[in-house]
């Protein structure tokens, strides 16, 4: 009971901060940032990177960045706990019997899929995973209530949360839900389901969840079932997208079909508590008391709100075991220029456009020319009947584009071709690239990850990762 009361007290503090003076959040963030830097000095990797810097006073942008290739190349030097080694970590995740167990008896271990290049093994303290659930169950609550009265109501009538992902494993979502906090079970009952389960709809109907959390691809399939009348969710309060890019047309469709708030979370395995979806407006709020999100250009210079960056730099203030400080992630992100209707004063990400290295290739005069996937995304902004897409390339200059259209609609191929040609001309690529669009009802996810790979390139310079 004491642990439950302690959780309620922390939850109230966490939720109140969303409407606090941003200066108060900044002071709290600064305190946690300096604590993280002190802990990072126990990491040989960071000792080398921070040599000569005054860590008690230096500004954030004075610190060098870290990328995943450097981190994995020096994995044994990355952690502050010298018992954490790559050999031990690989052996642990290599044994499926370890799913649900703590690495070295105290850490949550997970790995990325490697869908954007090299896979990364990540080590999280148990407290960081508890923080993730605390933030999602408070700031990710459609009502926004976490007081004693709301806690008593949920204690008498707990929420029913359905997590629809893949089966058990060390992938980030699967690994974290193995350690769902015991204190939360009094207020939120949890059922984990697999999106590959042939009886998924029957199980959801039987459970009748009040909250459904899933990948964007699975949410679209559930929306189809709901529209067809096969999925019954009479008590549904909100839905949550996790771990996969949800386009704005897709979010609007979910909002229309389910008729409840749609929380679109953006995070990475390196900082899973990075944001909480906004219940009223597009995008998501940065949990700026526990993380730092820098939206920057290709040279790591900050870009202003309203301008799409080339990548982001992440700092996770909750992980002092495997510090993530100014960690480069090639996501194209745009910060909002205005507030939203939900009342949160935390910074808001207006949109996430996926990975910056999602490129295709063409030939010009015997040399390779990069074709940014943003060209396709920009053209699709004019295609209001679409909600998802996938582009594939097997030879230079030719891209096959599958566009998922809303039920009952047809893709206006001539209009889309015009917009694609317009974008190619804008970037000086007309005549070098041919994009062949076609309409489909659904984009199939990668069976390994359960997520859609939107850019698949099998050609290009030899050094380009496939």
UniProtKB/TrEMBL annotation:
EC class of the enzyme, as a word: ligase
UniProt organism field: Urbifossiella limnaea
Chain ranges of the AMP-dependent synthetase/ligase domain: 176-309
Superkingdom assignment: Bacteria
SUPFAM superfamilies assigned: Acetyl-CoA synthetase-like
Annotated Pfam families: AMP-binding (PF00501)
Full protein name: Phenylacetate-coenzyme A ligase
This enzyme's EC code(s): 6.2.1.30
Molecular function per GO: phenylacetate-CoA ligase activity
Tagged with keyword Ligase: yes
UniProt keyword list: Ligase
């Amino acid at each position: 009971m004491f642990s439950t009361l302690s959780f309620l007290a922390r939850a109230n503090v966490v939720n109140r901060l969303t409407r606090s003076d941003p200066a108060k959040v900044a002071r709290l963030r600064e305190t946690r940032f300096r604590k993280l830097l002190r802990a990072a000095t126990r990491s040989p990797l960071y000792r080398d990177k921070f040599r000569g810097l005054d860590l008690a006073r230096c500004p954030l942008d004075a610190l060098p960045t870290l990328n995943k290739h450097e981190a994995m190349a020096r994995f044994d030097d990355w952690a502050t706990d010298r018992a954490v080694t790559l050999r031990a970590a690989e052996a642990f995740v290599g044994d499926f019997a370890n799913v649900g167990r703590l690495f070295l008896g105290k850490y949550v271990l997970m790995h990325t899929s490697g869908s954007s290049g090299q896979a990364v093994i990540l080590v999280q303290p148990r407290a960081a995973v508890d923080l993730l659930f605390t933030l999602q169950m408070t700031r990710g609550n459609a009502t926004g209530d976490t007081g004693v009265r709301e806690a008593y109501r949920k204690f008498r009538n707990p929420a029913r949360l359905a997590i629809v992902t893949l089966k058990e494993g060390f992938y980030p979502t699967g690994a974290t839900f193995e350690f769902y906090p015991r204190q939360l079970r009094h207020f939120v009952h949890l059922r984990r389901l697999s999106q590959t389960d042939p009886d998924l709809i029957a199980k959801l109907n039987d459970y009748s969840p009040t909250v459904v959390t899933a990948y964007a691809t699975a949410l679209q399939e559930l929306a189809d079932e709901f529209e067809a009348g096969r999925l019954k969710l009479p008590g549904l309060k909100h839905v949550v997208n996790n771990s996969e890019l949800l386009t704005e047309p897709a979010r609007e469709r979910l909002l229309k079909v389910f008729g409840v708030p749609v929380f679109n979370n953006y995070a990475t395995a390196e900082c899973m508590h990075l944001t909480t979806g906004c219940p009223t407006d597009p995008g998501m709020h940065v949990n700026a008391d526990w993380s730092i999100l820098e939206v920057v250009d290709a040279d790591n210079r900050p870009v202003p709100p309203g301008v799409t960056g080339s990548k982001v730099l992440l700092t996770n203030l909750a992980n002092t075991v495997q510090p993530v400080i100014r960690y480069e992630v090639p996501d194209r992100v745009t910060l909002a220029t205005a507030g939203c209707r939900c009342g949160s004063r935390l910074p808001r990400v207006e949109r996430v456009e996926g990975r910056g290295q999602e490129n295709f290739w063409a030939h010009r005069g015997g040399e390779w020319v990069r074709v940014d996937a943003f060209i396709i995304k920009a053209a699709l902004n004019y295609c209001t009947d679409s909600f998802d897409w996938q582009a594939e390339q097997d030879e230079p200059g030719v891209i096959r584009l599958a566009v998922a259209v809303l039920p009952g609609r047809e893709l206006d191929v001539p209009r889309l071709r015009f917009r694609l040609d317009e974008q190619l001309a804008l970037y000086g690529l007309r005549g070098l690239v041919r994009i062949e669009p076609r309409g489909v009802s659904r984009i199939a996810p990668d069976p390994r990850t359960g997520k859609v790979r939107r850019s698949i390139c099998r050609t290009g310079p030899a050094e380009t990762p496939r």
